[in-house]
Amino acid sequence: MSMINGKRIVLGVTGSIAAYKAVNVLRTLIQEQADVSVVMTDAAKQFITPLTFEVLSGRPVATNIFGAHQDMPHLSLPGKADVMVIAPATANIIAKCALGLADDLLSTMLLTTGCPLVLAPAMDGGMWEHPAVQAHTQTLRQRGVTVLDPEEGSLASGQVGKGRLPSEEVILSAICAALCPQQDLVGQRVLVSAGPTREPIDAVRFISNPSTGKMGYALAEAAAKRGAEVVLVSGPTALPCPCGVEMVPVVTVDEMYDGLAEKFPWATMLVMAAAVGDFRPCGTMEATGQVLAGSSTEEPPSRAHKMKKRQWNGEPLALEPTKDILGALSACRKDQVLVGFAAETDSLLANAKAKLNEKRLDLVVANLVEKERSPFGGDDNEVTILNRKGTISPLPRMSKRKLADQILDAVQSL
């Protein structure tokens, strides 16, 4: 059953070109069996009509503080709500909320509600980066309001920047977190690695693996929602950074090690969910035997250039091991909790136990990499958790987001 099943949600829609996307937000909430009431500002009605939301929600849309269809809607709607969501949230409504201004129905409701509040900003140009908007955002976050970061991309003005409305998935996740806070990691500083690494062969080719980063991102999101400070060191993925998480983007194994090593003394827990590549090409292409036949340059070939197929002389690609990140960090640990992952094709428990002992870990999450049960790319996984006390806990297949909480629960049990 959905976490928001039966929950009463007030969806505020303000005057942004992204107001049409609020339709998809509403549809998502209804699909999750939420009970949704929509409130629109006058500016929002310039972009989309209330009738659209009325048809989808099955109830009248509140637009006026003196509306005849409800008694004092600024009190009755928020008074019954489990959570209020404003999507899109303009710079104007963010300022009103931070300053306590109330000149229409929606802004007045913000002063009367005691339920959790989630703001999903959307704005054009450089408005999000403006010092005033950033100051208001910081004020709201300090009060406990969830203010999501807008996404980066093409904006209505034709500019490219940070200002796009967060996806329905990100907004839904923030709503779930606001409704079901579990704050057992307050005071913890969690360092998470996620995604694949890439080791370049030349300027356009690389060695990598099929990891999408979904498990690591789910762990970062879960830890943040449970009250931890979280830093996510991520290889290349297509995933948005979870709300409330600081992200350090990396590409190669060496870059991932540098990013983790810099934050490791700060952390109280390291969760090594990244699929770190075990091998990389040796040195330059010349060192691997990949001589560029007929090259007119006297400079030795390097990975800064693309090697043409006609220039390949048939020599095999020589590989060397990459740095053992988890082993290196374990060797310099103080009192951090260390969680590793073991993706195996055979002897799952034996290999997982060996990794647990050799790298002095507190917990290992082991899974089989099989065609029909591969953890790579999917939204769910089936794992076995082994801890330093010798406990072996096989878990049924479940979503990676739910599994993230199971893993954090297992860490807490230590």
Walkthrough of the structure:
With 414 residues, the chain is α/β, with parallel strands linked by helices. The protein contains twelve helices and 21 strands. It has helices spanning 22-31, 50-57, 73-80, 91-99, 105-112, 131-142, 168-179, 214-225, 253-263, 325-331, 348-358, 400-412, and strands spanning 8-13, 35-40, 83-89, 117-121, 146-147, 151-154, 160-164, 189-194, 199-200, 206-207, 229-234, 246-249, 269-272, 279-281, 319-321, 337-344, 363-368, 380-381, 384-387, 392-394, 398-399. A hairpin with a 4-residue loop joins strand 19 (384-387) and strand 20. The longest helix is centred in the last third of the chain and has 13 residues, at 400-412. The chain is globular and about 75 Å long. The two termini are 30 Å apart. The model is unreliable at 284-301 (pLDDT under 50).
Keywords:
414 residues; alpha/beta; five-stranded parallel sheet; 21 strands
For the largest beta sheet, what order do the strands appear in spatially? 12-11-8-13-16-17-19-20
Average pLDDT for all residues: 87
Computed CA radius of gyration, to the nearest angstrom: 25 Å
Low-confidence stretches: 284-301
Q: Choose one word for the global shape.
A: globular
Beta content:
15-25%
The termini sit apart by 30 Å
- What's the total helix number? 12
**How would a textbook summarize the main sheet?**
8 strands, mixed
